[in-house]
Specification:
Number of helices: 39
Distance between the termini: 67 Å
Helix content: 40-55%
């Protein structure tokens, strides 16, 4: 070991631990290495110190090492850590990703660092930058962090192909890091590592699973926060844990729920902040710093805090509701007392019997080290992008060359020649790549560069969909596209504490036409698109636990040995379902009620999705499209217009396993999820432009490789056909049986699965200031168009970014006459302005459009940001805004705008969707 490194190690932490010693030895002996260890075991230093040593010992030229991290947020934290080592050792370390300034990038090209930290997407960029390629030839090490975040998605496939491209010009070793996974050898092969380095010790955990029961003292808190007694009890228990331990991380499964939970705790006066991936970088840094410096006691967070961001010592981790996967629980629990010799302590606060039993099983599996495998995926769309990347580098290549290089990557080891040719054909048809038969050479065509750089990321662009209320005739909110892809006509969803039924999905306009539903039964919470799927192994084990609890309570306790829980709580939980329909690892239970049919089945989200689609397809064949279906971890819920015979549905479950894939594929082709996936797959192939809007995309690519790739992606991410086949085989063999029940009222578990599991929906009465705060936040997040009424310059932005509107002027002409408008109003205004500027006469309708935005600009000029808020609220056009702004300021303005919205919703007529039939006053009926 180099002397400088010895000195730095001694200063930093005295000596290397055993994991770091083993990794140092293996890397120094010339091997590629996969390091598998829990949070806090020193993985980062285990990976980078032997690399730094070789840079020092052998005087390696820059760029000597690439450090690839999946998250930009992780890069920021890593950079601070690695720069310390760089300063001590005289080694330059820099970061490069999409947000890096052009100046910084130019500097890196002239004077490249010895270690460059990048994202997987950045690798695809730097391989094509001529001035950097000459330095990439020097790469001797590639370190890949958080491999488990990459293996099971197409980002990982793209990274592997990028490394094979790099291997064409550089001879390097691979070093990977990951938390514990269930298929270590496969992950090693995925990385092409020679050996696995693991700690010779097991990290110690203590898991407490709680099912809080309301007490008399919870009544006051329930009243104060306008929540149910059950929720008040859970909040009390949660904060008692925080008070008993000091600094805490409170994990939730979704961003929206993290916001709601933090809001409730703050309303209670507790010192907490929220942290998730949708917040700005500045907000995340401030929240991290507040916890680190002891200004707050807890951070309410999502998976954004799983990946090793430095927040100092954390005493305890609290998981609110089931973590849904073993890997998730261990990764999150490991953030508390993460040093090797310490015991990481985590509490799971559960909300219902299913949540409780699932959490007990996950905690037990975690103690036993039964981790879920991560499933590698390739993709012909990613392969197509790789082919173009190679041609960007080399201009012309023999047709076999990309195929040969791709097959070196683990996920393409079985790539067939015909599949490769199918991918090439899409590129040729899109005129991105050409093929010269005489010379057997592939070459680039005109659209290649635009296609390559537009598709550097395999992550689909998130587009928000507007939800249009058919009754009131206005937009009531927005949903992320990743959630919308799971919606279909006739399904219900929850948004803003209300239930909505989907009437129509307009793919082209990105609008969901809906009407309010009287109940939240069968409704999907709008954050469920983010939900972590419960795997088959966990769900099936919950089934076994239920069976043991029913027949031998003492034996059931032995299944949970090592987990901290209360026998009294376990008895109370199981008493809730005893004597009523429930599934086990040996029983499927079909329960039919007047409004719904529930198939209780412990097979996890993805397998239940496949089974649900099979039954749904067969019901449609007999009765038509009158049912909606939703699959959950332990049940499949059908909303029905009449009470079904459960024996009929039982018959549908006994399908021939060989028919399953055909039925599921046919069902998927009719879904919005299929169309959304196909659109993204087609864009990654280059068959569609990035900004393309195709109404019936499934017809366009029917029978093509794009259709095949779409189904493969859905099978991997959403629908587990393989496990569904296993279930059907078990039914045929008799190791699974089907029970049925015809009931007037749904059972406990049926009701649980029919209703939303989302806590803190705004169903309780909120305090006035809470309502105003929620209204204000919604206004600030509203998207508007800033339009110059003088020259027509326009830009889409969010209201929150317009606080300094008085200081703004048009960047094109310098005018101060800037209007804030709804996108539709702005679109109508621009051609009218063009007519005005060219002196052409206006029609009456055009005059109204023109005057409307001139008035909006006058209001912005006169009232500043107050006018922006007014014009951004629903139903408030310039005329109404002028009246309100003349009378109100500050909080009173918000109250007036909110009342105006309510009045608008109550009184506005709903007009049939025909152009020209709208006869209300144009100045206020559209609203901005």
């Amino acid at each position: 070991m180099h002397l400088l490194l010895k000195k730095a190690i001694k200063e930093r932490f005295g000596r290397l631990n055993r994991l770091q010693q083993d990794a140092f030895r293996e890397v120094s002996s010339g091997k590629s290495v996969l390091i598998i260890a829990p949070t806090g075991s020193g993985k980062t230093e285990a990976a980078v110190l032997p690399v730094f040593n070789e840079i020092l010992e052998n005087g390696l030229r820059p760029i000597s090492a690439l450090y690839i991290a999946p998250l930009k947020a992780l890069n920021r934290d890593l950079l601070e850590r690695l720069e310390w080592w760089g300063r001590k050792l005289g080694i330059t370390v820099e970061v490069r990703h999409g947000d890096t300034s052009a100046y910084r990038k130019a500097k890196q090209t002239k004077n490249p660092p010895q270690m460059l930290i990048i994202t997987p997407e950045t690798l695809g960029v730097i391989l094509t930058v001529k001035s950097l390629r000459k330095h990439l030839v020097n790469v001797k090490f590639v370190i890949v962090d958080e491999i488990a975040e990459l293996v099971d998605n197409k980002r990982g496939a793209q990274l592997l192909l990028g490394l094979e491209r790099l291997e064409e010009i550089a001879d390097f070793r691979r070093i990977g890091m990951t938390a514990t996974v269930g298929n270590e050898d496969e992950v090693r092969e995925w990385l092409k590592a020679d050996v696995i380095v693991k700690p010779n010790w097991r990290k110690a955990y203590r898991f407490h699973v709680l099912y809080p029961k309301p007490e008399e003292k919870d009544e006051e808190l329930a009243r104060r926060l306008s929540v149910s007694l059950d929720i008040a009890a859970r909040l009390r228990v949660l904060w008692e844990i925080v008070e008993g331990h000091g600094k805490a991380l409170i994990f939730t499964n979704t961003r929206q729920f993290a916001e709601i939970l933090a809001h409730r705790l703050k309303a209670w006066g507790k010192p907490v902040e929220v942290h998730h991936g949708s917040l700005s970088r500045e907000a995340r840094i401030n929240a991290e710093r507040a916890l680190k410096e002891g200004k707050i006691k807890a951070l309410v967070c999502t998976s954004s805090m799983e990946l090793g961001i430095d927040i100092g010592d954390v005493d305890v981790v609290i998981q609110y509701m089931s973590p849904r996967q073993v890997n998730r629980l261990v990764q999150r629990a490991g953030r508390a007392k993460h040093r090797i010799e310490e015991v990481s302590e985590a509490y799971i606060i559960t909300t219902n019997v299913e949540d409780y039993l699932q959490s007990l099983v996950i905690a037990k599996h975690a103690l036993e080290g039964r981790f879920e495998p991560v499933e590698p995926i390739g993709g012909l769309d990613v392969l197509a992008h790789f082919v173009v990347g190679l041609l960007v580098e080399y201009k012309r290549l023999p047709r076999e060359k990309p195929y040969e290089i791709a097959r070196r990557a683990y996920v393409y080891r079985d790539l067939g020649w015909e599949d490769y040719l199918d991918a090439l054909k899409v590129l040729e048809d899109a005129r991105i790549v050409g093929y010269d038969e005489e010379t057997n050479q592939l070459y680039l065509r005109r659209g290649a560069f635009q296609y390559y750089y537009e598709n550097l990321s395999t992550i689909p662009d998130e587009v928000s969909w507007r939800v249009f209320d058919a009754k009131s005739g206005h937009i009531v909110g927005r949903l992320d596209e990743s959630f919308v892809m799971d919606l279909e006509e006739g399904m219900e969803f929850v948004m803003g504490g209300k239930s909505w039924i989907v009437l129509k999905i307009d793919d082209e306009a990105k609008i969901i036409k809906a009407r309010e539903s009287p109940s939240i039964e069968s409704a999907i919470p709008s954050w469920e698109g983010e939900m972590i799927p419960v795997p088959f192994g966990v769900a099936f084990a919950v089934g076994r636990l239920k069976r043991e609890l029913a027949f031998d309570f003492r034996n059931a306790l032995s299944l949970l040995e090592g987990v901290e829980f209360s026998e009294e709580e376990l008895k109370r939980a199981f008493d809730e379902i005893r004597g009523k329909p429930f599934s086990t690892d040996r029983d499927i239970f079909v329960e039919s009620t007047p409004k719904a049919l529930i198939i209780h089945a412990d097979f996890g989200n993805r397998a239940n999705e496949a089974i649900g689609r099979i039954v749904h397809s067969l019901l449609i064949l007999r009765y038509g499209r009158v049912f909606s279906v939703r699959a959950q971890a332990h049940a499949i819920v059908f909303k029905t217009p009449f009470q079904l015979n459960p024996e009929e549905v039982k018959h549908y479950l006994y399908q021939e396993p060989g028919n399953i894939e055909f039925i599921v594929a046919r069902s998927l082709r009719d879904s919005h999820a299929y169309r959304w996936r196909m659109l993204n797959v087609a864009k990654r192939f280059g068959a569609l432009r990035r900004d393309a809007k195709i109404r019936r995309v499934e017809r366009l690519f029917e029978g093509t490789v794009i259709e095949r790739e779409t189904l493969n992606e859905l099978y991997h991410d959403k629908v587990d056909v393989k496990t569904a086949k296993l279930v059907m085989e078990m039914l045929k063999a008799g190791s699974l049986r089907v029970k049925t029940a015809l009931r007037r009222e749904p059972s406990t578990l049926a009701r649980l699965n029919m209703t939303v599991g989302g806590e803190f929906l705004l169903s309780g009465v909120l305090e006035r200031d809470e309502v105003l705060e929620l209204f204000r936040k919604r206004l600030l997040d509203h998207e508007v168009v800033l339009v110059c009424t003088n020259c027509g310059w326009h830009s889409k932005t969010k209201v929150a970014r317009l606080r300094s509107i008085r200081e703004r002027e048009c960047p094109r002409c310098g005018s101060k006459m800037l209007a804030v408008a709804h996108p539709i109003d702005a679109e109508e205004f621009l051609p009218v302005l063009d007519k005005v500027r060219h002196g052409r006469p206006l029609e009456k309708r055009e005059e109204r459009v023109y005057r409307k935005l001139l008035k909006a600009a006058d209001l912005v000029d006169a009232y500043g940001f107050d006018a922006v808020l007014a014009l951004a609220s629903y139903g408030t056009g310039p005329d109404t805004a002028a009246r309100i702004l003349a009378q109100y300021r500050g909080e009173a303005l918000l109250v007036a705008l909110m009342e105006r919205e309510r009045e608008f919703i109550r009184t506005r007529r709903f007009w049939v969707e025909k152009k020209g039939e709208e006869k209300a006053d144009n100045s206020d009926s559209q609203g901005t």
